[in-house]
Amino acid sequence: MEIVWNDLMTIGVQEIDEQHQTLIDTLNRLGEVMLGEQRPEEIQEILAFTVRYAQTHFQSEEAYFEQYDCPETQTNKQAHVQFVEVVDSLIQDFQEQGADISLMIKIHKFLVDWLLHHILEVDTTLRKYVK
Question: Are 65 and 126 in contact (CB under 8 A)?
Fold first, then answer.
């Protein structure tokens, strides 16, 4: 499933919107790799990048939520903590099981579902405070 950026995802903070687009591009790349030849090292690199980038992104995003005094600040922080916990567990499963197709589908589905839900349901609450 390819994710296509659209205006509904726009937060109104260029840095955050660009970071979201990078994360979407990364998840789309993971989907492409999964559909092609399964190369565990490439999948591992994409997953590691996703975790590192998400943590950097989370710090930036949380700072904006606080700066604009958005009432969803704590909800956003908690969602980020839960994301890291689940992804750490999924990466551990990947390290133990390798590029098992059912695990890869589970990982990709979680990342795509979480990112879309988080952007559309939580992050977009910041939009009205930025303006």
Answer: yes
